Amino acid sequence: WSERWKSYDISFGGVKEETVVSIAIFCKICVALFAFISVYGISKKYEQTKQGGISRLWRDGCIRYMRLITSVWIAWFPFFMLSWILKIHTFSEVYCTAEKNTRLFGAKYFVIDMLGLADMLGTPTYNTTWWYLSLAIILIFMTPLLNLLYDRIRLFIIPSLVFLSAFCVRNSLSMSEVSRYCIGVGVAVVLAREQIFERYFHYGKEHKKWNALFVLMFSGLVYVGYKARKMELFSVAFIDNMEAVWIVFLCNSVFSFSNMRYLKQMLAVLGRHSANMYFVHSFVFAVFFQDFSYSFKYAWLILAVLILDTLAISVIIERVKGLGYDKLIKQATGNR
Fold this sequence. Notes:
Blueprint: H1 17-26, H2 30-49, H3 53-86, H4 91-95, H5 103-114, H6 118-121, H7 132-153, H8 157-170, H9 176-179, H10 182-193, H11 196-206, H12 208-231, H13 236-257, H14 261-288, H15 290-294, H16 299-332
Helix pairs in contact: 2-7, 2-10, 2-13, 3-7, 3-14, 3-16, 7-10, 8-10, 10-13, 11-12, 11-13, 12-13, 14-16
């Protein structure tokens, strides 16, 4: 990681660089959080649509996939045009590899990448952080099946997925990246179907004193997870999945303990734009505007500017969507 900023004069505000890097690495649990929240949301929706049978579940999965991948295209297009103008990170550099240095193979890799399948098929990708798209696509279509499985084996779904995860990692199967998040996925299905968060949030609002204890407990668990990850006491995959669960419980505890209206409003805005911000953040600080991003010297200021930059880009993307994209998607998905 440090190689990216070694050539810049960066100040960490009196904090050791090693500490900042360890915190940054810990924050890579964002993928575990995305996976957990996505599966949780799809599982809640499953309860409303399962009466439609497999055909309805398949249709809903296709709709989610279309919404995801077309959002990626809209976020990708302006940067692709920028690469053509600046001659940086061009089509040929990304897709025409040394082994297959032809436009035909480049076009094939491009199509695979635009379908979100590059990581799954091991082909070049225009944005290295978009490896998550392959995982997201698998989760979109796998989650309804997991809910069907849950209807039959209930809580046994968690140990079943733990076994699957261990089996895939131990045997170095190609789906090991997916199996990395099996534990969190199983927990998300159970929490959604058993309405655990609704019960927990209601209990927290009714019992403020107990909720204060829960805030301390989950804060402690998050810190223990951070230290355990740093000391490599457990599997990183296990820690990331558990940390995602603890953080969601912690947020529930905090917001049931106190209203925090302005903080909730700010987080709601960031939440609505989080997908677009994720799609473009690597373009901003690592590809096209690296010098600009690191020119602010102070680590906290660099992060703040990156958040504001990507948020502004996301606002523009959503405005563009409002020009016809939303209407097109509604028509394609039956006005849903």
